[in-house]
Amino acid sequence: MAPRHSAGKASNSPSSSKKKPQPSPFLLPLNVALYLFLLSNTLAASLAPIQDCDESFNYWEPVHYLDHGYGFQTWEYSPQYSIRSWLYVAFHAAIGKAASIFTSNKTSQFYIIRCALAVLCTACEVRLYAAISRVLNPQIGVLFVMIMVFSTGMYHAAVAMLPSSFAMMCAMLGMTAFIDWRGKNQTARGIMWFGIGAIVGWPFAGALVLPFILEEVVFALISSSLKTAVMHVLNGGVRCLLVLALEIAVDSLFYRKFTIVPWNIVAYNIFGGDERGPDIYGVEPWTFYFQNLALNFNLWFILALLAAPLLIFQSLVRSQTTNKQTLIRTLTFITPFYMWLTIFTAQPHKEERFMYPLYPFLGLNASISLHIIISYIVSDDKREFIGRIPLKLKLWLTGGTLLAAAALSVLRTVGMISAYDAPLRILKPLQNLGVSQPEGTVCFGREWYRFPSSFHLPNGMQGKFIKSEFKGLLPGEFARKEGDIFHGSSVIPTGMNDLNLEDPGKYTDISRCDFLVDLSLPNTTATSPLEPDYALDKSRWEIIECLPFLDTARTPTLARIIWVPDLPFLPRSLRRVWGNYYLLRQRKELL
């Protein structure tokens, strides 16, 4: 796994006048890698469900507000707290505004923004693949492509409108700069990209740059070039300060007060106190991320965990193939994975999206582990047991294992789409003028957290909340003022708090709802006066659309984890159990 070197001694022979073409550093041509990444990410943009209500309410809704003048507002966007960046939102809103030139359909605008995110992620993945192939090993590069293209985790992270996804993309570019030193040191550029991900995206993602800076310092001390290293780091720091200045300017404009959003985020999450902070939204056991990553990356996650032990084992057993500098550099590349997993495993509050910046590092670690294992497997050294196994058999077993892991990832991805895509499709009938009416309302009760976004509602229609058993704080609405987009972002809304305390002012009376979205899970849904099975009240509600939605409580574990066909002859342990996801219309005589 030694870095590739292109320099060599010149020859004085006559044949040296004709330079031999350099072998390609890519086993998989760049354009093929591009097409694979783009296909995977575009499919995700078209089909992936929104997994987190934070994505809908904290990002899609502010984007809708900038593009269309109205939308839901969470407490995080109140100037009183200001822990969300308008620079990040404005970037996506600009894409949506450009899309509106070509289509007035808001759902189409939603998918255009998603496709733009897919293209951006593709560009980052291709850059990182190229650096891995050129510097580490072409085989590692191919394995990296396979892992990133097939993993369920990347399927969701690539197109999620979340700061952690943005930080993931910036981390790929930062890692690319630190890996690929061809011709010049790119420390400043690497620090800049990690800084952009931390400042514009998620501040905690800045920790990922620390192993690379430490490597820079170590090599500087070894080569007595500490002054040069300090200048590189300062150069990168100055670039980050310029980005921070831009963010402060934009956020201060929107909030109409001097605001440093990255600091506000850190202060809230770390210094918020016992009554505040992320823990009030729930805590998980230390095993949460291990289980989640195992589900979303299966074999690749196990291989990522094994990267450091395998690398150290290789350096001890086959020391002739690895020099000290190569070992230090490779250890640097794999360290962020362990560091990030350790830091966030120790935090009580856990969310799947917190792992997004980790994904490219997981892919790299797993690729390195696979490369080491495959190099050992294909060995023909008869002194070793593995060398006495027929090569064809070893290749079949290895290839079969990789194909099985890829197939398992595909089955999980398809299972997630088929089980949970109803919220993205349920509002589609409202685009039919014969169904909806301008200025109508679509209400959400127990299903409030699956509201996809106002982009899925026709122009003029708005989402509203009705009382349910949920006792926390629901989003409000941005204040509106004709011709002043900054009014809603700068006015302190009523009823907001950072304690997740319920505000009765967020609810609408059900009699004012034109439509209602509800989930019915036969034999599972426990009805109450606040959460009845509305679809059964046919005298009041008319069913406009009904889509299947997985009943996770009654579906066996394996059928929840991966896709299985809905065939009657399958044993009960493999059958998926379905509920009904409804779009209901209130009968006109009752309005």
Report on this model:
The protein has 591 residues and is an alpha/beta fold. It has a domain at 427-590. It has 20 helices and seven strands. The strands form two sheets. It has a five-stranded mixed beta sheet with strand order 3-2-5-7-6. It has a two-stranded antiparallel sheet with strand order 1-4.
Quick structural gist:
With 591 residues, the protein is of the alpha/beta class. It contains 20 helices and seven strands. It has helices at 30-47, 53-68, 86-100, 106-136, 138-150, 152-157, 163-179, 187-201, 210-222, 226-255, 261-271, 288-297, 299-305, 307-317, 324-345, 359-377, 391-420, 422-425, 485-490, 557-561, and strands at 72-73, 441-444, 462-465, 476-477, 515-520, 541-550, 578-586.
Could you give the order of the helices and strands? HHEHHHHHHHHHHHHHHHHEEEHEEHE
Give the % helix.
40-55%
Indicate the mean pLDDT.
91
Counted by DSSP, the helix tally is: 20
Measured on Cα atoms, how large is the radius of gyration?
26 Å
Distance between the termini: 71 Å
Anisotropy-based shape: globular
Strand content: 5-15%
Major sheet description: 5 strands, mixed
Briefly note the structural class of the backbone: alpha/beta
**Main sheet: strand order:** 3-2-5-7-6
Q: What's the count of strands?
A: 7
Low-confidence stretches: 1-17
